[in-house]
Amino acid sequence: MGVPVRLVVIDGVLSIFDRGMDMNSAQDVRVMLGALRSVAQEHNLAVICIRHPSKAKGGLAQHRSGGSTAWNDFVRMSWLVGQEPGTEWNEYKRVLVSVKKNAGRAYPGLKFHTEWDEDAKEVRVIWDDICTMTADEVYAAREAGNQQKASDEQINSALDVLRKEPGEVDVRKARSLLRGSGLPGDAAFKALTKLNSEKRRRGYVPRDSEGE
Q1: N or C: which terminus of the chain carries fewer CB neighbours within 10 A?
Q2: Are residues 93 and 133 in the same domain?
Q3: CA dist 188 to 7, 78, 143, 182, Å?
Q4: Which domain holds residue 32?
Q5: Would you say the C-alpha torsion 79, 92, 122, 160 has a positive or negative sign?
Q6: Are residues 67 and 28 in the same domain?
Q7: What is the per-residue pLDDT across 58-71, written as a single tens digit (0 to 9) for each?
Q8: Is the entire prediction scored with pTM above 0.70?
Q9: Residues 80-89: tens digit of each pLDDT
C-alpha cells in the first residue's frame, strides 16, 4: 500500500486544459475546476492550482490573474505570492496574502524569504512575520515602481563580478555572488545573460545557466 495522498499541487494549472478549451471561457474553466473538485472529494484531498498574474495594471486583485472570472469565483480560497514591497528582487523576500477566502477563519498574510542550504543542497523557506498588506496593496506597490530597474552601469558592475568567478555560473550562483552588493535585483539576471552571450561567441554554451 502506498502513502496516502492528501495534497496535489498543479503548476501551472493551464497545462491540464484539454485541447480546444479556453481559459477565458467561464464554462470551460468551471468544467475543468469541477472535475478537479470531484477528484478531491472522492479521494479526500486538497488541490492547489498555481497560476501567474497577468501584466495588466489596475483593478482588483481577484481579477488580476487573467482569463475568466470563474477562476476566482469557483474556488474556496485564493492567495497571492509576490515580492515584498520595498525590497530588492535578489533579497528573496516575498509575501503570501489572501485574495479570496470563504471557508474557515480569516488570517493575515505572511512574510517569508528563501535561502540556500549548502549542506542539504536545497532551497529552504523561512517564515518571517505577519503581513498586514492586502493583495490590492501589494499589486499597487509593484505598479508604483517600488522595485528599481538596473541601469546599464549597474549591469556592467554586476558583469565585472561574474567575470571574475572561475568555472560555470548559473542563476543561483550569480544571485549569491551579488547578494549584499546593493545592485537592483534584475542586475544579476541581465549580467548573466550578457556573460553567457560572451561565452557563446567564444564557442562555449553554459549548461542550464539561464534557467531557474
Answers
A1: N
A2: yes
A3: 35, 31, 21, 11
A4: 1-75
A5: positive
A6: yes
A7: 778 887 877 788 88
A8: no
A9: 998 888 787 7
